[in-house]
Design brief:
The chain is an alpha+beta fold and 307 residues long. The protein is built from 8 helices and 12 strands. Strands 1-2-3-4-5-12-6-11-10-9-8-7 form a 12-stranded mixed sheet, sandwiched between helices.
């Protein structure tokens, strides 16, 4: 399907289109939920990351950007991710063409029969159009939040658990190993090579090793927390505990340590993204630590079988 009459579709680039993409996403958020959590850092990292498989801008009849699509995958034999925000006034006209575009482009990079994922703000009401394109509802992701200030003090970790600072450089491979093991088998999470991890995480604009920490259980590394500050919001990025450390209070200790790091840097709110159906009980951990759901995203999937 070509873009509808009056619209133009073209490849996107960071230099030319980053500001427009940020503006589109911010306008979508304000319309759908009344606030925005948008950062140009995230879009830039998507478009320059090792898993980037393409981005496209939609322009209206006046040449004004009104939507964009992004495709990414670290393992195109397993999962291919897509995101396609469109300004509300253009959604009915543009969304079907973008859904066809991302499927066509996903098939061009697919190895075997991977699953194509597409996520939308729950308030957007995209379900009927997405299901008409052959996708099925998969699950809901949450942005969770809690207020924070400099008075926050984390709980003391269990006696056999030590939370230590992340050692820049020395802990880079360890951090990659812990995240790889902790998230193995999670929905939509595919393994990343060490080379790609160093590029996408350690060399990224948002990486700050002073906002990361390692958990040790009886002297053995079993978990990691990474954070970023997009003032006034502090984000918990990765919070992972490998199987050997689960059920021992490691996750709660790491989470609250992350809270404390961000509070000390001036954050007034903590946020994170989580699969609401997470099998390891992450949502219960976050709720116990005072977090509540800020907004929801509906994730749809389509298995790219031949034909």
């Amino acid at each position: 399907m070509s873009p509808p009459a009056g619209y133009r579709l073209r490849p996107a680039s960071v230099d030319r289109d980053l500001d427009a993409a940020v503006a589109i996403l911010r306008a979508c958020d304000l319309h759908d939920v009344g606030f925005d959590d948008v950062s140009e850092v995230w879009i830039k990292e998507d478009w320059t990351g090792s898993g980037h498989r393409g981005a496209w801008i939609v322009e209206d009849a006046e040449g004004t950007p009104c939507g964009f699509a992004n495709l990414g995958s670290t393992d195109p034999s397993s999962t291919i991710d897509s995101f396609l925000p469109v300004l509300p006034a253009h959604r009915d006209a543009v969304r079907p063409a973008l859904l066809e575009l991302i499927e066509r482009e996903a098939r061009s990079v697919a190895i075997g029969t991977p699953t194509l994922l597409a996520s939308f703000s729950a308030e957007e009401g995209a379900g009927p159009a997405v299901e008409a394109a052959g996708f099925s509802f998969a699950r809901v992701f949450w942005h969770m939040q809690r207020p924070i200030d400099a008075s926050f003090r984390p709980i003391a970790p269990p006696d056999d658990v030590r939370i230590r600072p992340y050692a820049a450089g020395d802990d880079d491979q360890l951090g990659w190993e812990l995240i790889d093991q902790a998230f193995a088998g999670h929905f939509g999470m595919d393994p990343m090579s060490l080379k790609d991890y160093l590029h996408d995480v350690i060399e990224s604009d948002s990486w700050d090793p002073s906002l990361a920490a390692i958990a040790e259980l009886d002297g053995t590394p079993v978990g990691i927390v990474t954070c970023s500050l997009l003032a006034p919001v502090g984000w918990i990025g990765d919070l992972g505990v490998i199987e050997a450390g689960r059920g021992r209070g490691v996750g709660r200790a790491l989470l609250e340590h992350g809270f404390a790091l961000l509070a000390a840097r001036g954050a007034s709110r903590i946020q994170l993204n989580v699969d609401s159906a997470n099998a390891t009980g992450a949502t219960r951990l976050y709720e116990a630590a005072g977090m509540t759901v800020r907004r929801s995203f509906d994730c749809y999937e389509k298995h790219l079988t031949p034909g």
